[in-house]
Amino acid sequence: MPARAPSALTIHELHPLLISGQLSPAELLEDLLARIAGHNGAYGAYIDVAADQLREQLRRQLASGRRGRLFGIPITVKDNLCVAGEQTTCASKILAGFRAPYDATVIERLRQEGAVIVPRANMDEFAFGSSTENSAYGATRNPWDRQRVPGGSSGGSAAAVAADLAIGALGSDTGGSIRQPASFCNVVGLKPTYGRVSRYGLIAFASSLDQIGPLTKDVRDAAHLLSVIAGHDPMDSTSAPVEVPDYVAQLEAPVNGLRVGLPRLPEEGIEPDVRRCVEAAVQVLQRLGAAVERIELPFIDHSIETYYIVATAEASSNLARYAGVHYGLREPAEDRSSLIEMYLRTRTAGFGAEAKRRILLGTYVLSHGYYDAYYLKAMQVRTLIKRSFEQAFSRCDIVVMPTSPTAAFRLGERLTDPLQMYLSDIYTISANLAGVPAISIPCGFSSSQLPVGLQLLAAPFREELLLRLAYAYEQATEWHRRRPALEQA
Ligand code: GLN
Question: Mind telling me the catalytic residues?
Answer without folding.
Answer: 78, 153, 177
